[in-house]
Amino acid sequence: MIDDVTGRWNIEWASPLGTEYITLDLTADGDTITGVARDDVGEYLLENAAIDGDKVTGSFRMTKPIPLTVTFDVKIRGTAMTGKAKAGILPAAPITGHRSAAE
Fold first, then answer.
1. What is the CATH number of the domain that holds 78?
2. pTM (two decimals)
3. How far is CA 18 from CA 39, 41, 93, 96, in A?
4. Which domain covers residue 92, as residue numbers?
5. Is residue 36 part of a domain?
6. Domains: count for the chain
7. For the segment 1-42, what is each residue's pLDDT rounded down to a tens digit?
8. Domain-embedded: residue 2
9. What is the DSSP string of the chain?
């Protein structure tokens, strides 16, 4: 089990449409995570999020610039996050992140 993942995570996603910057506000309760993903055009509730060992998975539905579901599969080690995210039919792309220093 990961140490607590609760907090604000600053994410950089090298998506096929260009680099995206996302903030994830996560709250962990056992093997379940709730939270919100935010970017410069909106905020999106996390869906189907879970913890399994050091792995965190989930999804959120973006509405702009086009509606699509983003799924992610990351590993968390201390204050670092690495993994992949996939938006709709686009190929999966790497994401990296870190826990916000404010947390």
1. 2.40.128.120
2. 0.87
3. 14, 15, 10, 14
4. 7-99
5. yes
6. 1
7. 455 788 999 999 988 778 989 999 999 887 788 999 999 989
8. no
9. -PSP--EEEEEEEEETTEEEEEEEEEEEETTEEEEEEEETTEEEE-EEEEEETTEEEEEEEE-SSS-EEEEEEEEEETTEEEEEEEETTSPPEEEEEEE-TT-
